[in-house]
Amino acid sequence: MHREVLVLRYWEGLSYREVAPITGCSVGTVGGATIGNVLALTMPLIAVTGVLSVLIATVSTVGVFLRLRTASLAEIQVRLAALEQMLLEGEVR
After folding, report:
1. Where are the alpha helices (DSSP H) in the chain?
2. Other CB atoms closer than 10 Å to residue 19's CB: what's the count?
3. Cα–Cα distances in Å, from 61 out to 23, 24, 34, 54, 64?
4. Phi, psi (deg, nearest 5) at residue 33
5. pLDDT 10s digits, 39-89
6. Can you state the angle between helices 27-49 and 53-62, rounded to 10 degrees?
7. CA 77 to chain centre
8. Confidence at residue 22, expressed as pLDDT on a 0 to 100 scale
9. DSSP state, 69?
10. Total-model pTM
11. CA 20 to the chain's CA centroid
């Protein structure tokens, strides 16, 4: 199902509501699977490159970051940029 959700959502451009009946899942499950799959694909890139901007790009694509559902995309990007700066300056390990 994971691959199917990503293909339908990003390759075919279908909405969560359109993907749900095709996969036999609820809209919430499709949304969660989409986010989880994108993050699962992104985390190895971050680990290999050490570049947090990959995660910022992912947040822009997915529109959420983990459970920060109440924060706006702009707020999340600001927080991630600040964290990236702290990492670059050695303030966070």
Report:
1. 2-6, 16-23, 27-49, 53-62, 73-88
2. 23
3. 22, 24, 11, 11, 8
4. -65, -40
5. 777 777 666 666 666 666 666 555 544 444 455 667 667 777 776 776 677
6. 160
7. 12
8. 94
9. T
10. 0.46
11. 19
Of 58, 90, 92, whose CA–CA distance to 77 is shortest?
Answer: 58
Long-range pairs of 57-65 with CB within 8 A, sequence gap ≥ 24:
62/34, 62/35, 62/38, 64/35
Q: Which long-range contacts (CB under 8 A, 24 or more apart) does 36-39 make?
A: 37/2, 37/5, 37/6, 38/6, 38/62, 39/66
How far from each other are the two terminal CA atoms of the chain, in whole angstroms? 36
**Tokens read off for 66:** 């983990």
Distance of alpha carbon 50 from alpha carbon 32, whole angstroms: 25
